[in-house]
Fold this protein.
Amino acid sequence: GLAAVLGEVLESLAAAARDADQIFIGTVTSLSRPKGQSGEFGSVTFRVAESLKGESSPNLTLRWKDKFTYSCQPSEMFYNVGFRSSGTFIVYTRDGQVVRSAAADHLRSGLLSLDEERATAASVGGR
């Protein structure tokens, strides 16, 4: 049922938060998309509004790929890294690369509210 799905989402989120070097909420200021199936990275720059874990600076540029799989779960389920210009996202990074992202603005969807995700991320981040 829904509770089981929610449990999986929270578990996956906590795992992502533990694995991340940094977690922040930021707005996309510049975006260059990965090129198709070439395996090349795109680049995304954020204006950081709030840092939840790790070192942060006012502006961050990160590498990203449109989709990938994390522990055998398709990225559409939990680890959506699609960005759009001037959108606001909660972003998880590792080694300068985006490993998870979710909308943090009016396009937020999914089972968890942003506050719930922020609380989960912050509790793992040890703030």
